[in-house]
Amino acid sequence: MANLAKLEFDALDITEKNYLTWVLDTKIHLKAGNLEDTIREESSSSSQDRVKAMIFIRRHLDEALKSEYLTVEDPLALWNTLKNRYNHQTTMKLCEDTITEEHMLEKTFSTFHASNVLLHQQYRARGCTEYN
To answer: What are the pLDDT digits (tens) for 28-65?
Structure first.
């Protein structure tokens, strides 16, 4: 029973500072459990798979977020709601500066591991203009 309380990775914090790593970890774990289709538009997943995904996602949310999204019963709806909430926050002004694609690219470049310096330089030299 003690294993049931263990999380595979950190829960999404109410401040959402760990949102990007949480999304990646969630996608990886859903894919490993053959549940990745449950968070896609045009999903043909069974109701049982949607329930499994919903349990998994809710289990990895901060308690305050769980109660905030208590009435959401579909994993795709919850996924999109959390994604929209985060995207809204990234467009807000921070210290009088709007966060732009260039800021996000620069942040990405600055977090490359030291062994990927060449890749960092190539992306910057080519003037990448999209951030994913």
So the answer is: 999 999 999 999 988 889 999 999 999 999 999 999 88
pTM: 0.63
66: its two tokens: 């769980």
Which amino acid is present at 81? Answer: T
Q: What is the pLDDT of residue 32?
A: 93
Sequence-separated contacts (24+) of 45-54 with Cβ below 8 Å: 50/74, 50/75, 50/76, 54/78
Domain boundaries defined on the chain? 2-96, 100-132
What is the length of the chain?
132
Output the DSSP codes for 23-79.
HHHHHHHHHHTT-GGGGSTT----HHHHHHHHHHHHHTB-HHHHHHTTT---HHHHH
Q: How far is it, in rounded angstroms, from Cα 41 to Cα 87?
A: 18
